[in-house]
Amino acid sequence: MRPNDTTHSEETKEFVIIGNGPSAITLSYMLAGNWPYYNPTEPHPNSELHARLVSPGDSESYSDDTNLSSVSLIQRDLDYLSGGLSGRSRNPISILFDTLQHPDADIGSDIPSALSWSFHPDRAISHVVLGSGLPGGSWHKMNDCNNTLTISLGTWMQLPNLGIKQWSCDNKRESRVPLGRVAKYYRDYVRHQNLEKYFYNNSQVLRLEFNEKDNLWKVSYMQDKVGHFTISTPRVVLATGVNEKPNKLGIKGESYPFVIKSLTEFEKILSNLDRSVCNEPVLIVGAGLSAADAVITARFEGLPVYHAFRRHPDDPTLIFNQLPENMYPEYHKVHQKMKGKSLSPDYKAFPMHCISEIRSNRTVVLTNLIGAEYNGINDSTQKTIKVSYVLALIGRRANLDFIYPKRLRAQLLQHPTQPFHSRNNPIAINPFTHECLNAERLYAMGPLVGDNFVRFVQGGALAIANDYWSKPLSLAPKVSSSPEDFLLR
């Protein structure tokens, strides 16, 4: 049971999951005894995958009369099942789970899930989910965003065995859904699936370290209005996501109060803004979807906009150049403005510009990056603009500062001497178990390992649950003794 006193208390659990977003919720669902099975009633459109699902692999020992549809994926050889699959994830089990949950989704098919679920109460595993807010993680911060739609299809946002339409009792045909509705769905999912006893909400993890004396991980956390607690566990799962800290501009004046770093904060300011004294444009910095949402929000509220971003609008890596126009018309309109093809007196784009300085009188210095270091000659130019607010939406990053020692924190990454990056430098894991390569019985999932879409974060849950049930439970965790000493305790 959850601690209910304000004294220091210590518990023991089989698993501690740090983070309470979609990936953590899915893992909790599986650890609670809910197991997925392949439903061969309608064979999967991938005939090779179907054949592997209904026949054992070389490492699987089943009798000839075993009906493999009665064997859960948690008990199967995931390496064998995931062979030959491709998709928009670097992690093979994420692709496997998504292929089964959303067959042929990337070619526009709307085929029902190939998975069925059964509850096995005798296989429930003792665990706890620690999250700094309510279930849903960073989605809960968007609880009031009812005008901004998800970038992904609504069906791609849902978790196992409870569709969003089923949850909302709403049969409206809509491909995308408001962010606020998704946040409420994740919160309610925990209650609908009877997972509330596993969730310690409003809990801030203070420290994670390995105790060599008892071969257990120690997790220290503070729960609001309750107290400080410690949990001992052989297995910890990092599921914190990458939205904890906004990226910094790294310039003078960044700390002024009129510099904002989240769309939610901007919307709160708008709700109390005196328009009669807000005569200058809002400067929006960034070329991602959050920046586009800010442009849409500001223009909807009648505020003039300056929009500065480093890349060329036709850069193929820009997210707008990867979105179908018919599905995302609002983002296409912003992109047209960024390219100068849709002119507006209240919107001015500054492509290939960066901010050099923010001054206390609300003036901002922009530097033109075109030819800035061409042939060794600095040919950049600068301009100064007057603004009401600066909204810097240049991405966010993970907060792993609770992991000790610092040396271990660095060793977890694929490139230990470089900072964490979800795409270029994620946590290094065994791709079939999601166990960290440099710390046994420490797992990672979701954006920390490069899975940034809800569709794919759920595969990590399958990998971790499968690993638990396939390993001898007497094995104790062991932290890598790799000799990197470039970071000290």
UniProtKB/TrEMBL annotation:
<dbReference type="Pfam" id="PF13738">
    <property type="entry name" value="Pyr_redox_3"/>
</dbReference>
<dbReference type="InterPro" id="IPR029731">
    <property type="entry name" value="OSGIN1/2"/>
</dbReference>
<protein>
    <recommendedName>
        <fullName>FAD/NAD(P)-binding domain-containing protein</fullName>
    </recommendedName>
</protein>
<dbReference type="InterPro" id="IPR036188">
    <property type="entry name" value="FAD/NAD-bd_sf"/>
</dbReference>
